[in-house]
Amino acid sequence: MNVLWIFAHPEGRSLNAALRDEGLKALEEFGHSYRVSDLYAMKWNPVVDYEDFAHDPRERMLVAAASQEAYESGRLPADIQAEQEKLAWADAIVVQFPMWWYGLPAILKGWFDRVFVKGLGYGIAAPDGTVLRYGDGKLTGKRAMAVTTIGARPSSIGPRGVHGELNDLLFPLHHGTFWYTGIAPLPPFAVLGADRLDEAGYAAAVEGLRDRLRTLETAEPIPFRYQNRGEYDENLVLRADLAPGRSDLAVHLQD
Fold first, then answer.
1. Which residues form the signal peptide (predicted)?
2. Which of 58, 67, 156, 158 is within CB 3.0–4.6 Å of 117 for a Cys-Cys bond?
3. DSSP 3-state assignment of 5?
């Protein structure tokens, strides 16, 4: 497989960097090809602005429309086009980051903001006009896995833990970014208690990451429901007979 590894940590001597290096060695050992986007090392600009779309700042900019026009006319900046080329090359994406304030570091969020423009990441329609998202889209056929470190103690991450359940914390990435654009999200690999990790814990983390990368091509994705397979009504609300009486995020998982 071709694997794009997107890395978002500012410190090259960090736990994240060490895990990245071990992960890349494992990919090579398992026969995969890879490319790396080290966002801090690249000094990636995370901010969407007029220059992304060669838009006249004297005129009001509608970001979605401007991004689609620039994408389809080949006028996006070279840095965005380079990342889109890597994305097109990849069969799988590994997105690695420390979880900060319940989400992605800003530089990584900005990678998605600038790379997943309209016409590529969203705004895709079938010939009959059906909007292709949540399981369908231009990026369908690719798979992605989040690799994250969380400083909180393991007991505090869970259904009754004060920080919440891991899959709920990652729902915006898994469902709202990967699945929305048609990419199949794999269960995440998380190192909990990262700030307290000892030598044995690090060894276990490396082995756990290797195990997950070994099955990157074959692991079952998170079974989210498709938007366009009849499970949501015309208002994009889950049918009343599915997961009745519930309103948690897991209602969007297939039974």
1. none
2. 67
3. strand
Please, how many CA atoms are within 13 Å of residue 33, restricted to the half-sphere of its CB? Answer: 6
Residues 53 and 107 sit within 8 Å (Cβ to Cβ): no
Q: Which domains does the chain have, with CATH numbers?
A: 2-222 (3.40.50.360), 225-255 (no CATH)
**Extended strands (E) in 51-183:** 92-98, 143-150
Q: Contact 182/135 with Cβ under 8 angstroms?
A: yes
| Helix, coil or strand: residue 84 | helix
The total number of residues shown for the chain amounts to 255
CB 184 within 8 A of CB 143: yes
Q: What is the pTM assigned to this prediction?
A: 0.95
pLDDT tens-digit readout, 117-165? 999 999 999 999 999 999 999 999 999 999 999 988 888 889 899 999 9
Type of residue numbered 227: Q
Interval 102-125: pLDDT, tens: 999 999 999 999 999 999 999 999
